[in-house]
């Protein structure tokens, strides 16, 4: 290792998703079921709002906490929904930025953080950067949130519970009862509850419910990347107790500085966009991919997001099956990137229906071949 490289960087690897793309680099026209972003474009009105911001000279740094109109609009909605006396909001550089600021603001070396396995790839890496100790909870085979398992994992060193629903990579949505139980458990033990709600709009069978409804101190991370296809714009937001938010802002000031100002004006317009047609489309895509794969693959039907986490057929494991799929031109992601287990693979159904059909045909054929 180069003598200049910090020791903390050796505690985690680069995202394994990159390795999948390296394997697929020579494919001319792959059937891509790997991308974690919507296949629709940023709404035209949002694009135009950003263009107008650029053309009108709104190109400098914004305040670290974000432009006032966007913050005020989000805050007004939060006040109406929760009426918490101690809840503030700021605009982060994407939800990934919000996650990093959460860890850096609250996690001391040795603090334990509980989250489900499978998990979003950033969770363990960010924890290790902050010196925290990951406490993954095995949620196989159905990937449900089990409040009793979480309660059993709490120790005097537990500092945070990370809740992600709808979940990446499984698409599974926690029930209202599960969310309430975890929220109240965190409050009972004075543990920080960070609720990663980036897929909150993609909730297909029941209304979305936030952990903040049951815990006035919940720290919520959300944004516009998935809901409005604005993944490259880097506009997220975080809300929670004022003192925690102020600390996160202090770190943002010395790191990300602010979210890009023109993108924030686009996000302000995004608050007015009706997403119901897109959500209906993705509900149909969920139904389509589930119907196409149900006869040959084991999976928990996703209630949200745009992922399906299926068990690989046979005994070779998820990574081996993914390699076979890529050799046949289908890009999917091995489950071990999101888990301590190598049994599953992730499909993104954020793709055209014909692409889903083509991909399912290949995957079913590989399953039949054993």
UniProtKB/TrEMBL annotation:
<dbReference type="GO" id="GO:0030170">
    <property type="term" value="F:pyridoxal phosphate binding"/>
</dbReference>
<keyword id="KW-0032">Aminotransferase</keyword>
<dbReference type="InterPro" id="IPR050596">
    <property type="entry name" value="AspAT/PAT-like"/>
</dbReference>
<dbReference type="Pfam" id="PF00155">
    <property type="entry name" value="Aminotran_1_2"/>
</dbReference>
<dbReference type="InterPro" id="IPR015421">
    <property type="entry name" value="PyrdxlP-dep_Trfase_major"/>
</dbReference>
<protein>
    <recommendedName>
        <fullName>Aminotransferase</fullName>
        <ecNumber>2.6.1.-</ecNumber>
    </recommendedName>
</protein>
<feature type="domain" description="Aminotransferase class I/classII large">
    <location>
        <begin position="29"/>
        <end position="362"/>
    </location>
</feature>
<dbReference type="InterPro" id="IPR004838">
    <property type="entry name" value="NHTrfase_class1_PyrdxlP-BS"/>
</dbReference>
<dbReference type="InterPro" id="IPR015424">
    <property type="entry name" value="PyrdxlP-dep_Trfase"/>
</dbReference>
<dbReference type="GO" id="GO:0008483">
    <property type="term" value="F:transaminase activity"/>
</dbReference>
<keyword id="KW-0808">Transferase</keyword>
<comment type="similarity">
    <text>Belongs to the class-I pyridoxal-phosphate-dependent aminotransferase family.</text>
</comment>
<dbReference type="GO" id="GO:0006520">
    <property type="term" value="P:amino acid metabolic process"/>
</dbReference>
<dbReference type="InterPro" id="IPR004839">
    <property type="entry name" value="Aminotransferase_I/II_large"/>
</dbReference>
<keyword id="KW-0663">Pyridoxal phosphate</keyword>
